Amino acid sequence: MSQYPPPPQGPGYPPPNFPPGTPPFGPPGYSLPPQSRLSGLAVTSLICGLLVCIPFVTGFLALITGLIALAVTGNPTIRGRGLAIVGLVLGILSLACWSGAFYEGYTVLRHSTPQRLFAQSYMTDLANGRIDKCVQNSTSNVAKDQLNSDYKQMQSWGTFQGTFVVPQSWNYMNGNGTVKLAGACVYSGGGQHRFTMTLSETGGSRKVDSYQWLP
Fold it and tell me: In the beta sheet, which residues pair with residue 179?
């Protein structure tokens, strides 16, 4: 019975010669550098700062998340500090702009109280058929025939419940000027009929210069 010799072995390589106590992948305590990540709070702050469509809410969220993101991104492994700063600034600007807009609206509403009350009284007189009083409170641009026609039309809308008016714009110089208003007459059943009105003020006298029903 014949035997075959074993196949030849390749050249051998001596094992690596590490110093005693040294691990094969580096000195003691060696580890891979930590991976950095983007801060979600910084991204949230930027997005909320860009969304100015909701008064105060998005600006407040941008401010809070931006402040937290600034503290978090102090860790070198967390990126997004620039985004946090931009979101924080946008949040502050959003809050400032909305605050200014609300204050201006409140000021306009408060200063226009006499004009709004006058317009409400005028439309109430018209709805109740007090045509002569409406004529006294109108300029020559408002004809009596127009008032009579509108009164008949208003009767067909149902029972008059009231009216509300908001200012649109005004133009004053030396105590004289015009005020533009918008409002609606409310009738039973929830029906509303919108209108615009222009008041003329001269020498302390206030009158309706024109009004128009809106579709």
Answer: 170, 199
Q: What's the pTM?
A: 0.58
Residues contacting 186, CB < 8 A, separation 6+:
160, 161, 162, 163, 164, 192
Token match 């110093």: residue? Answer: 19
pLDDT of residue 153: 92
- CA distances (Å), origin 105, targets 7, 135, 191: 97, 32, 27
How do beta strands 160-173 and 176-187 pair?
antiparallel
Given the structure tokens 């050249």, which residue do they identify?
11
